[in-house]
Every structure is written in structure tokens, then in C-alpha cells.
Amino acid sequence: MGMGSREWGVGNRGQGPGDRCLRSMRVGKQFCLQSSIPTPYSLLPIPYKLRAAFALLLAVFAFLSAAMPVCAQESQINFDVSGSVDWTRAELYTQVSFDLARSGIKLPSGRYLAEETLNEAYPGLLRPFIRSVQVDSASTIKDLMDRGELSLEYLDRFTGEAVKTPPSLSADLTRMIGRYTVPLERISSILNRHSSIAEPLQPLVPVQTANYSGVIIIVDEELPVYGRSGRARAEPCLSPKIWDTNMNLVYNRDMTDPSRGGSALIVRYAVRNSIFRPTPSGLEGDLAAFLGNNPLRIIARSVFGVHPTDPVIDRNDALKILSTENNRRLLREGRVLLVLNEKMLK
To answer: What is this structure's pTM?
Structure first.
């Protein structure tokens, strides 16, 4: 049966260099196309088209698997993640690691792949630790996000700006390890939403007091929890408040100058032995630069809050802060140090 220059007939494979042999599933026979001209795809039998399409899909899948190994394998990798906050340094530390052999990665050729796997995975793995950071006595970062006060975009910005230690191998060469540091100051900066300073209540009858260079509140012992029975140690957070024994607000974030230079933290944290040093100010070097040579030292009377993050100081001590312009300036500049128990700071 002729069809132009093409002839269809029953035969065997390999009848000539230009032969194309196809198998018909309906009649169970093998047909050979004898032609030196390539057969248009539209004229090929349907089974051949299906096999060609399937082969193309396999090729595409193989290419994508090779081009994006991290994305393809990440969901199959079990990451070990640990994290902690050092409030004295105001830093969140995390460590991420995974087993190379269980992930199908062999050294030395797979080292680059292992490093890229960490680089792709760590932002998502850091999120739970940032979400757990305590903002104030009642809220964490997660609570702010749930209330719509903080977006996921901000959270990803924090993880993207983490300080990364180059990935390294474990001593036994079985795991790839990455270490990441997020400064709490960066997180604290987005909590400064006020554009003007809320001045603290000035006393009607000021007291005679010295001009101080900083404020230190010692709250490292178990103290009564205001309004509740029992005692507790103060806990650190990004936005603590300071109250007096009459429950007047002495200090909070809104009393700081949002345009001030330097740190966006409204307080710093330290342990007791760092404020009793054989120096003119009695402070360690970096704290002396922060608080000056003549800080006011106050011992807290109790703590307050759902989480006991807020120190309560004696009314007379509060008056020493509020009675002079110089001492109120210390609040605007955030020159406040809270001394907590070491166990609560790491």
C-alpha cells in the first residue's frame, strides 16, 4: 500500500538504516516504516507517543533532582536543633546539625551539598526559637504574631540577618553542624513603635538626691510576687516595666527616646558579681561604659506580672530617679541594668 514515498508493511526490525519499527498493541504485530524522511510525531501510533511522553517526564524529573538536591532532600532529613538565649549578651544562639550518612551524603564530594542543605534549612528551623522569646510579662513573639502585631516577614528578616558561623563537620565526620546567632537588639528594635517620649510622673514634692549616671536594680533573689501568694525569681524579657511599691509605673519602653543612638534594648541584664568589682564604679568594663562611675543601686522589694519580669522598687528609691531632670534622662536613654539570678539569664 503506497503513501507517497512511504510504504507500510509487515516485517522485522532493522530492515535498513532508515527503517522505523513500531509495535501495534491492537493487532499484536510489528510494523516497519521504510523511509529516509523522519516521521511526523502526529503520524506515530499512540503507544509510541505515550512512551515518549513518559521518557520525557523521567528526564525532566532527573534534571530537577540534580539541579535542586537541597529542596528535594530537605524534607527527608532529620535535623537536630538546639537553642538558648544569653540575656547578659543579649543574643539568641542556635545550633543545627544532621547525619550525613542517613541523608545520603558522602564525603568528601558531598560536603558542598551538606553545607547548602544547612543554608537552605536554617531560617525555618530558627523560627520556633525566635517565636518563644519573652517580650513582656504577658506576651512572647508568638503572641504578638497571633494578634497580628508582628508579621512573618519581620520574623524571616531576623533569621535572614542571623550571624552565621561557617558550617563544620563533627569530630567523627558523621554530622554537618551550623551555628547561628540572632542579636536580641535587632528584635527589640521593632518593638519601638512610639514616636514621642512618654514622660514619667514627676513627684509633687521632689526629694533631695544626687545626680546619678545610671540605674541598677538588684532582683536576683526569690521575692514575693505582687498580687499573688508565693515567691519567685525575676525572669528576663525584652520590655520589662519598673513599678514602685504604690504600683505607680516608673519605667517602660515608651519612656525611652526612640531616636536615641546606640542600643534598642531598654534594659541590660547582668549577674551580681559583675557589679561589685574593684573598679572606681564597681562595675565590669563594658558595664562601666554603659552606666558610668556613679550608678544608683536599688534592691527590689518584689516582682510583678503573669511572668514575673517586672521589678517593684520602694517608693523612696523611685523618687530618687524621678526627682531630678538628670535622673529622668537616664530613663530616656535606657541606662538601666537589672541584676538577675544567673540561672534565669542563660
So the answer is: 0.76
